[in-house]
Amino acid sequence: MDYKAEKITPYGSNESKTEQVREMFDSIAPVYDFMNRAMTFGIDKLWRRKAVKMMRRYEPTTLLDVATGTGDFAMLLCRMLKLKRLVGIDLSENMLEIACKKAEKAGLTDITSFEQGDCLALCYDEGSFDAVTVAYGVRNFEHLEQGYKEMYRVLKRGGVLCVIELSTPRNPFIHALYNFYTRRLIPLFGRSISKDARAYSYLPESIAAVPQGDEMLTIMQRVGFTDCRYRTLTFSTCTIYLGVKP
Fold first, then answer.
1. DSSP string, 95-139
2. DSSP tag of 39
């Protein structure tokens, strides 16, 4: 099945969405963390912590963090879940370089490894991990269901998938304010800071296009996940999805 989000690309070039996403994140890597804090007023840190708390009941010890970016979520997962092993993958070498430096600074190099990889073709064996996470990355998948199938494949039975994704508010008044902020102010601010004219225009476009709520759960269930549920946060601007591999 095709999804609207798969058609939304950063640059609209003839390259695949995967290649364009890689190029975009290589471009904005130096300002990525700053922009995240600025755009969300730091609330993104609270969203991540809430997701980890929701995962605690599953007591994972080995974890794959897909679209790990600069490693913020990976560092938090290691600290809060007391993991024995975390592997973080990302398309962007520049983002991974920052993640490796964070792991070294945090003294976590003995349990973490960061590798360039594509979520649509994971290089790990079936049943390799207790948990798989992806924070703010699903909307960048070139093929949504293929990405979910791969994450399902590398999970152990009883393992949990946790997806954090940005979403659009349901309240009409909040939605109007949100649209003005994300479609006018963020692209303007993003262009001035990152020097990438398209990266922060792509952001609201991809958020609006990605499946949300029950539609996202349907995709997870279609590839085999059970006990699927979601929780919205901060006026529904962020959603956490959970699913279990039976």
1. HHHHHHHHHHHHT-TTTEEEEE--TTS--SPTT-EEEEEEES-GG
2. H
Q: Is 57 exposed, middle or buried (0-12, 13-18, 19+ CB in 10 A)?
A: exposed
pLDDT tens digit sequence for 17-34: 999 999 999 999 999 999
The separation between CA 241 and the C-alpha centre of its own chain, rounded to angstroms, equals 11
What is residue 159's three-state secondary structure?
strand
| Residue 164 near residue 47, CB atoms below 8 Å | yes
Q: Check: CB of residue 10 under 8 Å from CB of residue 21.
A: yes
Amino acid (1-letter code) at residue 42: G
Tens digit of each residue's pLDDT (9 = 90 or more) over 178-216: 999 999 999 988 888 988 889 999 999 999 999 999 999
